[in-house]
Amino acid sequence: MIKGNVWDSMQQPLADVSVQLLPDNKWYRTDKDGYFEFKSLYEGTYQITVQHVGFGSKNLSIPLERYDSTLCVVLTKENKTIEQVNVNRKVTEVDNLIQAENAAMPVHVITRREIELMGSRRLDEVMKEQTGVAIVNDISGGSRAVGVQIQGFSSNYVMVLIDGQPMLGRNNGNFDLSRISVTNIERIEIIKGASSCLYGSDALGGAINIITRQGVITPQVQASLLYGSLHVVDATIEGETPLANQRGSVVLSGNYYQTDGFNTDKQYLTSGSTTLAPYENISLQGRLRYKTSKNGTLGLTARYGGRNSTMINAWSNDLTLEDGQRDNDFNLGASYDHQLRPGLRTMSRYYYTRFQTTLQAQWLQQAALAGSEEFGQHIHRLEQQLLYTPLPSLKLTAGLGGSMEIMDNRDLGNTHSLNTAFVYAQTEWKTTDRILTMLGVRYDHTNTYNGRLSPSVGLTYQLGSNLLLKAGAGAGFKAPDYKMRYQIFFNPAANYLVVGNDRLQEVLETLDSQGELSYKNSYMVDRLANNLQAEKSWSNNLGITWNPEKKWQTQLSFFYHRIHNQINTESIGSGTSISQIYTYRNSPKVVNKGFEISADYHVQTNVELSIGYQYLIVKDLSVLDSIRSGRPPYDYYVNPTTGQYRKSKPSDYWGIQDRSKHMLNVKALYTYRPWQMNVNLRANIRGKYPVQETNMNQFIDDNDKFVPAHTLLNLTLEKTLMKNKLTLRVVADNLLNFTNRNMLGQPGRVILGGISYRWVKP
């Protein structure tokens, strides 16, 4: 046991002080006598962080052997400085010198303990419970593409990284978050807004950086199993150990996940059909760290992910489609961290990744091939980073590097590789005790598109001991990828065709000559074909953090993102046997704007409440301009009920597809200590959002197809036994059993039961 008391400099006990124990990530709030305790601990070295509003914080390293450790911690009262605001989030990484908190944009961190209390299995399940984040299925990626949306930016604009290295394998720009298991995750960092200055062009709308397990103290193994509805099996085993007399450490983990899939479209698909495919997924990952010298650390990471899925879509006894897909994902990274001298640190990094997917669909009764696709890509990436601190108040982060990306599919055009070079720098200058300024710039150049400069600026101002202001602005850009320009993708299960912009005219002419084109939107085709441009953006964020009481924290942020030439999918026709034909189009001027507000309140030491709300407007300003001026094709509003036409008004325009104006998250955590039991109840409420334009007036209005407003209610029960070695869990997702045929990735009610056992070497 580690126990103790917290006092002020006058030897008076301090109540409601936050005490954090790492690496177990346990928390305790002191009672009226300033007392805290952590029971059922194993031998080893622990880190304790003690924090209290209006006081300086303390970081302690506590060796725990055969007997209890008793501490007396004294906190000194002082003005809270900027450095102390996020002290519990500052973790020195061994494989990346770029810290998420260095971004000018807002940053949110999800801890390992939060993930455990959700009972989540895949990354998409974790993300959908975060304020300002939505999970959607990208139409161009098919039902298997479970993507993310941050402040109105779709998955195309959000970079997903593991330990600071970008992940490959996007279905037409959409990264499938359900590919990633949350096993072995230490924390998740979410940057909202343009992050191109730190991470490059794919982070035009934000970044999700997944940090895997670290902080090894003593050899231990943990095994867990979840089983329940849809025959979901989620089995994980993790092991970690120090080596070479604590000079190094190894962390290994493996996860097996399977599900029978589900059908959200029972009205049109017969029994046995699924809208989300049954699949098996295997994830293996490992980290090795070794201190080669007093000032040098070598890091190695490896990850493999494999998924195999087969789904059946049957519209009638004579019309049954079998759709199979296999994905393989391999990542390997190496880094060398070297402290040259005090204040000067360098890191060399190499990264290799390989992604391959194979898709094949056939009509079973006719024994005919409906469609097939094979796509592969791999990338080599080198980067040199530098961290220089010439003064305590001044820090410089800089880097340069390059990457070579190669596509397997030779049908994507004459150029089969994408070579990129980049250089970036960012300064953090603490001008006074209350003001921290950030300036950054990055330049990216590719062999296919022109180079682009991405600047950013940030300001953090401590207005008072309980009031913090943060403002940031940054540029971003993103060039169309090869698939958007050249690929022809047919989804036989959903019966739609997605055509790369540069091949649009060719494909439509071929369909027309074969008598397979029933409708073509000539106005849109003439505007779009061979005319896809790179995207540019400018993001602005203003945030306020207010702590009116020790138990209460409130955050409010306003955001305004201006995007030029945003790329979206557009329906431009239909075929005699194909329901919809899509391509990509630029929206000349798009605005994502709104605000987020969140509040956390500790009612007692065993009750925590939190709430988060986002208001979002996403509109194409060129559509609004055309409506105001009466320019076709947006000049008339069609009432589908009466068939009557009238002049369009700006208020008729809803905005861009898949965006809700209102999203609300409510969470309540109750801990009953005598039973060592946690009850975690969460409600995710999302307002209605449009999925398709149906009345042919070329813009989304209230009469088009929408997913209705809905609530997803989730519950997790957790009980520990045998001195925290054994954990029992019951996970209940979507208790209200909400489904919709246009939410392909949202199952009905799912109930799972699980057990976890942790063994630690005595």
Automatic annotation (TrEMBL):
Domain (TonB-dependent receptor-like beta-barrel) ranges: 249-735
Subcellular location: Cell outer membrane
Keyword Transcription regulation applies: no
Transmembrane keyword on record: yes
Organism domain of life: Bacteria
Primary residence: membrane
Protein name (database record): TonB-dependent receptor domain-containing protein
PROSITE patterns: TONB_DEPENDENT_REC_3
Domain TonB-dependent receptor plug: 101-207
Natural source organism: Sphingobacterium suaedae
Similarity comment: Belongs to the TonB-dependent receptor family.
InterPro entries: Beta-barrel_TonB (IPR000531), Beta-barrel_TonB_sf (IPR036942), CarboxyPept-like_regulatory (IPR008969), Plug_dom (IPR012910), Plug_dom_sf (IPR037066), TonB-dep_rcpt-like (IPR039426)
